[in-house]
Amino acid sequence: MPKSKRDRPVTLSKTKKKGRGHKESIVNSIREEIEKYNSVYVFSFENMRNLKFKEFRDKLKSSSRFFLGSNKVMQVSLGRSVSDEIRPGLHKISKLIRGDSGLCFTNLPKEEVQRLFNEFEEYDFARTGSIASEKVELKEGPLDQFTHEMEPFLRKQGMPVRLNRGVVELVSDFVVCEEGKPLSPESARILRLLGTKMATFRLHLVCRWSPEQFEVYKEGLDDSDIESS
After folding, report:
1. Rg (Cα) of the chain, in Å, rounded?
2. Which residues lie closer than 8 Å to 116 by C-beta, 6 or more apart?
3. Rounded mean pLDDT of 210-214?
4. What are the residue ranges of CATH 3.90.105.20 in the chain?
5. CATH architecture of the domain with residue range 136-196
6. Are residues 64 and 40 in contact, defined by beta-carbon separation less than 8 angstroms?
7. What is the CATH number of domain 23-124+200-228?
8. What pLDDT, on the 0 to 100 scale, is given for residue 99?
9. Within the chain, which residue ranges are assigned CATH 3.30.70.1730?
10. For the Large ribosomal subunit protein uL10-like insertion domain, which residue ranges apply (predicted)?
11. What is the biggest distance separating any 2 CA atoms in the chain, rounded to whole angstroms?
12. Which residues contact 158 (CB under 8 A, 6 or more apart)?
């Protein structure tokens, strides 16, 4: 019996692309927040960890609102020039939304915001492609931190290991990673097993806008850079 054309598999994991309506919703939300808060900050981040950022955001939810997403959408929301900015001076911070950036709307005093951002630092395991901050080398001999069940997995990661009377043993010195070089998938897995954290999730304030003042915090930037960019 011929197969019906209606009998087609449906992928339940397939999701619709976020279209124009979603972008307009973000634009409207950002513009609404400008009327509610005293200050707007642009911040940059490195080694983003979503769970840790959520914790930081939740700690400030009574006084602040954060936005991450498309830089272009955030720029359009604020206005990219004097002619389309929604409040005087907002086009200046719009020009500094670059790379890994976000927006923070807040009613906190600027000294408190600076303290919170400067003190925020979370260590985590580095991911594939991250640059190793140090050389990690394992010496020949027993690896007591690993159980015998781990031996096949360690071998798959390229480690020269064997079982010696039920103990995992390294048959020769092994360099897990070299300082200043990108981590391979195998290196990242081994570092995680060793409990070695090389990634630091940080937030950096770039600039601040309020109806009374515009300030740049990032080194190497000033008003002339912003107006000419």
Report:
1. 25
2. 60, 108
3. 92
4. 136-196
5. Alpha-Beta Complex (3.90)
6. no
7. 3.30.70.1730
8. 93
9. 23-124+200-228
10. 126-195
11. 77
12. 186
The CA dihedral of 75, 77, 79, 80, to the nearest 10 degrees, is 20
pLDDT per position as a tens digit, 41-97: 999 999 999 999 999 999 999 999 999 989 999 999 999 999 889 899 999 999 999
DSSP state, 130?
A: P
Residue type, 170: L
Closest CA to 24 of 69, 54, 90: 69
pLDDT in tens, 139-175: 999 999 999 999 999 999 999 999 999 999 999 999 9
**Burial call 143-178: b when 16+ CB within 10 Å, e when fewer:** beebeeeebeebeebebebeeeeeebbbeeebebbe
Structure tokens at 156: 């798959």
